[in-house]
Amino acid sequence: MQLEDLPYAHLLQPHAGPLRADARYDTVHFDGPQSGSATGARFLECAFTGTALDGAKLRTAAFNEVWVQGSRWVACDLADSDWQDSRLEGTVLAGIAGYGSALRRVVFRQCKLEAVNLRGATLRDVVFEDCLLRDVDLGSGAGLTDVSFPGSTLEEVRLGGSQLKQVDLRGAVRIDLPDAARGLAGAIVSTGQLFDLAPQLAAALGIEVKDR
């Protein structure tokens, strides 16, 4: 997808100046580095291209029909934020506080998520396509429904204490789940993935596996 493919592309207006708390941004194009605090802001039909957000405050912000492409968001506070009908492509999210957030009908494509805290978050109809998830915490009360990971690599992704429903891991290239024994109820895995997880599941159940 390109910027001009967005149904609201012809309405977009360039953004100037710092981000503002509690502001309403409607059909705004954010391009390049951004500064300021947008706590409680509302983003409706907005586009972010090549944006660099370092340490941005976006707590309780709402993103509705937003497109993020080729961006780098580092050490941002996205706790209790709300995302709907949005798409993130080729974007890096690192050191993100996203606990308590809600994501509905969101697609991540060719993104890198590293050290992202999504404890207690709600994910519904979310797709991670060809992504790298490393040190991502989806446990401690998080709820995942109809979430899939086609072509993605999961490294040290924690699900312990989460509630899963129709979470499809079969398309993932690799799954490394340190607390798989406590957080896989409600997930769908392939036979091969089950074999890979077997030693960890056996250890959690106190089963000692010996061939002789």
Helix and strand sequence: EEEEEEEEEEEEEEEEEEEHEH
How many strand units?
20
Largest β-sheet summary: 13 strands, parallel
Anisotropy-based shape: elongated
Number of helices: 2
Distance between the termini: 56 Å
Can you tell me the residue ranges where pLDDT is under 50 for at least 5 consecutive residues? none
Strand content: 35-45%
Radius of gyration: 18 Å
| Average pLDDT | 93
Structural class call reads mainly beta
Proportion of helical residues = under 10%
How are the SSEs placed, and which strands pair?
Elements: E1 13-14, E2 24-26, E3 28-31, E4 42-44, E5 47-49, E6 52-54, E7 62-64, E8 67-69, E9 72-74, E10 82-89, E11 92-97, E12 102-109, E13 112-117, E14 122-129, E15 132-137, E16 143-148, E17 153-155, E18 163-168, E19 174-175, H1 180-183, E20 187-188, H2 191-204
Parallel strand pairs: 1-3, 2-4, 3-5, 4-7, 5-8, 6-9, 7-10, 8-10, 9-11, 10-12, 11-13, 12-14, 13-15, 14-16, 15-17, 16-18, 17-19, 18-20
